[in-house]
Design a protein that fits this description.
The protein is mainly β. It has 4 helices and 43 strands.
């Protein structure tokens, strides 16, 4: 926990920074002037007749062409009754390096139009170029990065399904067996047959607050999640049954996050589920998983009730060395915060932590140290599923504000949305959210995907402390270094983070890890636990820089190495 004392009426934190009671952030939406201006298109605008029209899309922030600048990918959707002469495509915004982006999606090979959903990034073939999976209602598409600024649809070549209809949702590249090659976890939302789906108002689960709305997910067939094992030859094999992924039965699954929740060096998988118990797959180290969400305390809320889980954020918010879970939920519910007690069990601390200040319909979510004081804050993108509620005086609106909770460093958060700058004063029909540094100043920006509108790009102009960024490349481990754990020794604290694929709602954050340092001009040590368990120490490092680190062989002269 954050230790502090009063000196002359000023609160001094453990890192030595003066903390004033009135915190103010300053974010501005600069999407328009930056060139992120292509409207997303997803289902009806004023009404939505099917659940397919409500989920929206995710975004990914990653450097697809290796020029050292993060780019932005945004999935796109379509409409049931036609879209006119030009079918909507995904957007690939290339970072031009001058504060402006250019949409190169068609040039890069993103020419498929359909019900796009989630996106996750990972170099599945270890060729040094990050690849992309986009989930769809229909069949998912695996895009292999050719390394020349273009992508190739290798879905069939990779032995992933290209027939049949699935409602793909969240996804994550994860090396669950630590063989150095990224495997692939894909969640599915509903086993949806549009021809057999009831119409709004025609059943128990087709009415909300006495107004007819689209049906579901309750009352619709549940779907199963899938784990694909990387065969190390460019192909994948479905191992869902043998790995234990099918054991819990069907769910209404949405967000996915893979991380080492029990500090044993092996990635576990958490799945946020809508009106079915959320899932925590514990890695057994033998190619199999045990589902223990209910036992661990992350399947339901604090009093055992089902929740409509959407997005997921993972971070050690209280500095105790264990990764905690935040989950967005439906309107009228709190944002869940599951405190990791001992690696095996979690406690829902949503109420006592202060996350009940606003009970909106949350989607994208991320931990982001807004002021670089060393304590990750929480940003949540909101927007209702039912446009029909607008103007009905039901206590809910379709457009909802993005919310910012400031981490007070004592296990509690404060809602500072009203004092977070102009970007937080505009309500949106938001869905996906991703974070990453887009202008090279060391501070992550925030990209939000808006239903049937242009995206938002939130620039953080809040006064900052010092920071350290860490960018990793695996050699023995997967090239994306997904699953690597970084521990920064900063003052009296050790701050941890992991490289993760997927997360938020349907989205992908930058792989570069960002550590706020407050007033510290250096750190005593940076320790990397690579996905294969090797430890590498970099020693003392100055702040306000990005460390670019390649995995070293044991015995290398660059840092100290050991095996965990």
């Amino acid at each position: 926990m954050k230790r502090s004392l009063f000196v002359g009426g000023i609160l001094i934190s453990a890192l030595g920074a003066a903390v004033t009671p009135a915190f103010k952030a300053d974010f501005a939406d600069i999407a328009g002037r930056s060139g992120l201006n292509v409207p997303n298109l997803f289902g009806g605008v004023d009404r939505k007749d099917y659940i397919l029209e409500t989920t929206g899309n995710g975004a990914a922030i990653f450097d697809y062409d290796g020029d050292g600048r993060n780019d932005v990918f945004i999935a796109n959707g379509t409409r049931l009754n036609g879209v006119g002469p030009q079918a909507p495509l995904p957007q690939l915004y290339h970072n031009e390096g001058n504060g402006h982006f250019r949409n190169l999606a068609a040039h890069a090979g993103f020419t498929y139009s359909g019900w796009g959903q989630g996106v996750c990034v990972g170099d599945y073939d270890n060729d040094g170029h990050p690849d992309l999976l986009v989930t769809y209602y229909g069949h998912n598409i695996l895009y292999r990065n050719r390394g020349d600024g273009t992508f190739e649809d290798v879905t069939e070549k990779a032995h992933l399904p290209v027939t049949g209809t699935r409602f793909g949702s969240g996804c994550s590249f994860v090396d669950y067996d630590r063989d150095g090659y990224l495997d692939l976890f894909v969640a599915n939302y509903v086993d949806l047959d549009l021809a057999a789906t009831p119409h709004p108002g025609s059943g128990e689960f087709c009415v909300w607050k006495d107004i007819p709305v689209m049906c579901g997910p309750r009352g619709l067939p549940k779907a199963h999640n899938i784990l694909y094992h990387n065969n190390r030859d460019g192909t994948f094999t479905d191992v869902s049954e043998s790995a234990g992924i099918l054991a819990p039965g069907g769910r209404y699954s949405l967000g996915v996050a893979a991380a080492d929740f029990d500090n044993d060096g092996w990635p576990d998988i958490y799945v946020a589920c809508d009106m079915t118990p959320s899932l925590l797959f514990h890695n057994l180290h033998n190619g199999k998983f045990e589902e223990r969400g209910a036992e661990a305390g992350v399947a339901f809320n604090y009093d055992g009730a089902l929740q409509a889980g959407m997005g997921i954020a993972v971070a050690d918010y209280d500095g105790d060395g264990r990764l905690d879970i935040a989950k967005t939920n439906f309107s009228g519910d709190l944002t869940s915060l599951f405190h990791n007690d001992d690696g095996k069990f979690f406690t829902d601390v949503s109420r006592e932590s202060g996350l009940g200040a606003r009970q909106l319909l949350g989607w994208g979510i991320a931990f982001l140290d807004v002021d670089d004081d060393g304590w990750p804050d929480l940003i949540i993108a909101n927007g209702h599923v039912y446009p029909e509620v607008e103007g009905k005086q039901l206590g809910d609106t379709y457009l909802q504000p993005t919310v910012l909770y400031h981490n007070l460093g004592n296990g509690k958060f404060q809602d500072v949305t009203a004092d977070a700058g102009p970007a937080f004063q505009v309500p949106r029909p938001a869905r996906g959210l991703a974070i990453g540094d887009l202008d090279g100043d060391g501070r992550p920006e925030v990209v939000i995907v808006n239903m049937n509108g242009a995206p938002s790009l939130l620039k953080n102009r809040t006064p900052q402390g010092h920071f350290l960024n860490v960018s990793l490349t695996g050699t023995r481990s997967n090239r994306s270094a997904i699953g690597a754990r970084v521990t920064v020794s900063a003052g009296s604290r050790k701050i941890i983070d992991e490289v993760m694929s997927g997360g938020s709602f349907y989205s992908q954050n930058s792989f570069t890890l960002h550590f706020g340092l407050g007033p510290l001009t250096h750190v005593q040590n940076v320790e990397i636990r690579w996905p294969d368990g090797t430890l590498q120490e970099l020693g003392k490092q100055p702040s306000d820089q990005t460390l670019t680190v390649s995995e070293q062989a044991a015995g290398s002269s660059f840092g100290k190495n050991s095996k965990q």
